[in-house]
Amino acid sequence: MAGTLRQAMVFLGLADDGYEQQPAPQKRRAEPEPAAEEDYEPADLPVDEEPAYEPAPARTSRRASRQQESPAPVLETVVEPEEDDAPPPAERTEHRAPVTPIKRAEAQSESDNELRRITTIHPRSYKDAKVIGESFRDNIPVIMNVTDMDVSEAKRLIDFSSGLTFALNGSIERVTEQVFLLTPANLEVLENEVADAGYEHEDVPVFNQR
């Protein structure tokens, strides 16, 4: 094809006649590609083993550890006492029987050298029976003067005192018509001790405790 084209060009005067026809270049044979190395194993190459991953220890702040160590706060409940609507003692008008403690002479018993006393009570109502009972319960002789009481309430108080002395193994004695001596068990009140309290025995009937 190339030779024919050359001849046509020479014929038309477009090319020199002295052109040496060069042989057409031969197609280069494709060289076979080297076979792929299928079973390549880099067995001889050193392999760097990666170190196993170890999680870093969790950091615990000092504040958190202190909070764990410190005990839970204890809630203290303060209960305030309720206000009492009752008036203060100074404003109360409740009457209490006047009590007059009187020191006694030395006891007759050799084993008891202490000074004992006699309590004189002037009750105004039957409510004063509590004062008489508390004094007698404390082993204190009581002189009870009922001159300021109503006759009916005085009788009730005398009956109460009689039962009180009987229950506690004491005794009740009439000093005057309206004055009574309550003596605890195992005690003896002398006449001069009653006189020191301002009372003298009169010729009155013996009080019947029954």
Automatic annotation (TrEMBL):
Cleaved signal peptide residues: none
Region (Disordered) location: 16-114
Oligomeric form and interacting partners: Homodimer. Interacts with FtsZ.
GO biological process, one term: division septum assembly
GO cellular component, one term: cytoplasm
Function, in words: Cell division protein that is part of the divisome complex and is recruited early to the Z-ring. Probably stimulates Z-ring formation, perhaps through the cross-linking of FtsZ protofilaments. Its function overlaps with FtsA.
Compositionally biased region (Acidic residues): 34-52
Name of this chain's protein: Cell division protein SepF
Record carries keyword Transport: no
Main location: cytoplasm
Keyword terms, alphabetized: Cell cycle, Cell division, Cytoplasm, Septation
Bias (Basic and acidic residues): 91-114
InterPro entries: Cell_div_SepF, Cell_div_SepF/SepF-rel, SepF-like_sf
Recorded family membership: Belongs to the SepF family.
